[in-house]
Amino acid sequence: MVKTTVYTVSQFVGVVDEYLREGLGTVVVRGEIADFKVVRERLVFFELKDAEARVGCFMMRWELKTELEDGMEVEVTGTPALFKQSGRFHIRVIDVQLVGAGALAAAFQKLKLKLEKEGLFSPERKRALPRFPEVIGLVTSKEGAALTDLKRVLANRWAGLRLVLAPVAVQGVGAVSQIVGAIGALNARPDVDAIIIARGGGSLEDLQAFNTEDVARAVFGSRVPVISGVGHERDVTICDLVADLRAATPSNAAELVVPDKRDVAIEISGMVESVSEMIASRIAQLRNETRHAVVVMERQLAAPRTRLSVAQSRLFTVCANWFTLRSTRAVHLEKMLTAYSPTATLDRGYSITKSNGKVLKDADTARDGSELETVLAKGKLRSIVRRNLGLGI
Question: What stretches of 85-225 adopt beta strand conformation (E)?
Fold first, then answer.
């Protein structure tokens, strides 16, 4: 006889709970939200139902990445379990994804309106991208076509870039938390100049991770400018609206983040040509100004030069006249001096008589026996006074 195991209630609940968790593991269940409620701002309870059954769901508030309400169709990812105290069966939810175009569109509009009122889409807060970034962070799947397109376009447009890949799941369970974490990790690096968030196109369900509040706030809080290249041209996500710049595709994001080296070369060539023309024009202007200044200067100097020439001529004439006059006077004086000189007087027959070296002017002063010296025009005579006849003889 097989012995039956007897369990206490708590033991039984524990065994079944363990069996459910380990036996089934993680499951994905689709249904409609019913009786949604948040308890104490941290515990989330709701039921998932279809036309024939219901199952309870439980998760923590911080794990909920999308706002839910009754009537939404969703897919929940979680583990089957039992509540220990009540023994009620439930799914311990770790992720919720909206399904169905209607539900996704309604959630999109609701979140868009909320964030718009808060100013997350305001053009005034959006920053310009750096003209020549050196390090670009990439938030995308490491296996997707978006990464290949980004690398190709960036390499073709601008050489020498350094790309820092922060690989993430771009849809499904854990995508939101991975995207938020990647944005934070790239912001922690001081060398990153810009961030590109990218994935290829898809349905609303495929792009749901980029239509969540957590991703929107991570992009809004980024210190590094963010370019959103999610989906195709027709796809508009919440991430696009919050980002500093929206690109139509991942390839377009690469085109927007760096200039094309050929365009820059043309721009530089144009700048060089423009500067050369400016320099040539300035040189021509200075040459004309110099020529004009020389002409003006020559005109200004012409009158003084003429006046100087006239003054020189006058000075020469005055000096010549002065020297002629002085020369004539000198000749006249020389003639007068010659005519009235003692030598000229002697030449006319006169003589000079000296007594004791002094000119004798009065005969009475010459005593008898005194020696006299007579100076003639030619030669001298010495004589002795024998008899002084005086003035009366």
Answer: 89-98, 135-140, 162-167, 194-199
